[in-house]
């Protein structure tokens, strides 16, 4: 069944990626872990979607599910992942190999998930180009050199002759980002790729990503726990908790007027918004185990707005207007009540 959220998003434009009710579970001796639970969102050409939430909220598992990088005992059990209308969940493993790195690229938090420690950088980058395009080695090498320059690596010719262990952690991450840019994919999924970078290089990478989206029409999914990053980068924001999307909307809507108490808590706990001399706001408790989620709303045991009504799972509420937004909560915050969460 298609969610009302994805239906409304598809009416605005033909999306590059349309995720509909995606479900990915892990089977264990103690039960089933619903790591991705009916997640829906859509992203168009040249747009940036930010996915935020605490550790364990399902952000990375959603990305791995889109890329079909889930190993047993994990299994995608439902939903659709449409790339320009083609369902990636129906493709064979061989067909997915032609998609990954070409039409969809992913930048991991740990660059060593991308880089082979026993191969030189030029070998890896040339293979990444020639695996999908019938070009000469010299042309592939030229593209590799240009990609390294774009991510701020000095002396690219020298660096192309190096091995991954000869780079610092931040330099390895920049190489991984360069590899993702090589084939000018339709969609790039970034799983906290700038965590290991210094502020100056982080700003440069963010600028390059925005330029890529604007000039090439590349769609970008940026997964992070840092709201200050997505506030200046993303167009839409998807807030996840316990494997589900609890709020969705434009960055301005979600950050300036959050509806879900969890979203408000994330924003209010940002150190950049804390007043001098005042204790930092905290969301009480900790993220529950996905094996032992409370009945109803998964956030209710930590929520200051919870009532007995929250023992029932809240349905998705979609707000009508020029900018589509949605949330899952029986007690949504109103604009006046959410002012403390402004960023």
Automatic annotation (TrEMBL):
SUPFAM superfamilies: P-loop containing nucleoside triphosphate hydrolases. The keyword Aminoacyl-tRNA synthetase does not apply. Keywords: ATP-binding, Cell membrane, Membrane, Nucleotide-binding, Transport. Belongs to the ABC transporter superfamily. It comes from Oxalicibacterium faecigallinarum. One of its GO terms (biological process) is transmembrane transport. It is found in: Cell inner membrane. GO terms for molecular function: ATP binding; ATP hydrolysis activity. This is ABC transporter ATP-binding protein.
């Amino acid at each position: 069944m298609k969610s009302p959220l994805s239906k409304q998003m598809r009416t605005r434009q033909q999306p590059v990626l349309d995720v509909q009710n995606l479900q990915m579970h892990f089977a264990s001796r103690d039960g089933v872990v619903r790591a991705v639970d009916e997640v829906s969102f859509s992203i168009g050409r040249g747009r940036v979607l930010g996915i935020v939430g605490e550790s364990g909220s399902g952000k990375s598992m959603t990305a791995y599910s889109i890329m079909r990088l889930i190993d047993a005992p994990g299994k995608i059990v439902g939903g659709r992942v449409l790339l320009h209308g083609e369902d990636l969940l129906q493709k064979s493993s061989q067909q997915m190999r032609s998609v990954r790195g070409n039409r969809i690229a992913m930048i991991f938090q740990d660059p060593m998930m991308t880089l082979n420690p026993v191969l030189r950088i030029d070998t890896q980058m040339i293979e990444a180009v020639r695996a999908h395009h019938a070009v000469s080695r010299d042309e592939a090498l030229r593209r590799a050199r240009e990609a390294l320059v774009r991510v701020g690596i000095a002396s690219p010719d020298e660096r192309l002759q190096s091995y991954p262990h000869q780079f610092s952690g931040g330099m390895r991450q920049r190489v991984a980002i360069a590899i993702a840019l090589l084939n000018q994919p339709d969609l790039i999924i970034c799983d906290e790729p700038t965590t290991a970078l210094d502020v100056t290089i982080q700003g440069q990478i963010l600028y390059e990503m925005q330029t890529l989206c604007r000039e090439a029409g590349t769609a970008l999914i940026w997964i992070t726990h840092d709201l200050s990053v997505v506030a200046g980068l993303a167009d839409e924001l998807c807030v996840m908790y316990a494997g589900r999307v609890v709020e969705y909307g434009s960055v301005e809507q979600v950050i300036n007027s959050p509806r879900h108490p969890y979203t408000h808590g994330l924003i209010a706990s940002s150190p950049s918004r804390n007043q001098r001399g005042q204790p930092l706001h905290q969301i009480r408790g900790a993220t529950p185990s996905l094996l032992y989620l409370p009945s109803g709303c998964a956030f209710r045991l930590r929520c200051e707005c919870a009532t007995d009504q929250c023992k029932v799972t809240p349905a998705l509420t979609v707000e009508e207007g020029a900018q589509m937004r949605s949330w899952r909560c029986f007690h949504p915050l109103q604009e006046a009540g959410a002012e403390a969460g402004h960023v």
